[in-house]
Amino acid sequence: MNEKSKKAVYASIWTLFMALACYLTITIMPTLPTNTLSVESYTLIAIEATLLIISLLILTVALKLRKQIISEVNIQPIKLTKIKKALTATLLTMLLATTTYAAIIHLASITSPPVTVERIDGYFQFSLDNATWQDAQDYFRVTGMSWYVRFNITSTFKGTVNVTWTLQYYDGENWVDTNVTVSSLNVQLQGTGNQLIYASPSGDNVGNKNWADETGVWRSDLINYEVFKIRVDFTRETP
Fold it and tell me: How far apart are CA 55 and CA 76, in angstroms?
């Protein structure tokens, strides 16, 4: 094999490596986690970046070898110009596609953790003054001008949760959500059972919601209803 043939073979091998790097980048990147940034996530992102750098280096080398490959092959000048343009366009297209795809996937992999609904067992307690409490049924027949609720958690789930309290009314057939909600953020559940949480921003008794503010006679859309209940939804960020 003469020198020109060897160089052509070497150039072909570089081109194959380039194609392989691009393939690996495209096939491995979608497997990167999109919901957390754990140690494993950073490791995979590092692998992604390494593959991208390798593919860019190979593309660079291929571009440098382009002139050498074409100049050592006996091709007519007109065809040579066309081949140069075609090869340059192909390499630049592959480079753009690889870097663009890598950027999109990399950015998508660094997102906020998704929210997961948790089942938390417990029961409601009811109060007219936010001080004296009694166990409640699933619903509350409102007769006073103030009423409060709290939720006694019996589950052993331990962690930080967000709680959404939603006022519902009974229309004679179904329980209907209102637009009245309270959010208790970053509530620490101890996992010991019998933990009390309140419809306040912090989950404590201070600032506990007086639901009569929403079910009184001044709420024209609720004036015809006497039976209400509160729905609680627990969410947490996936660890």
Answer: 32
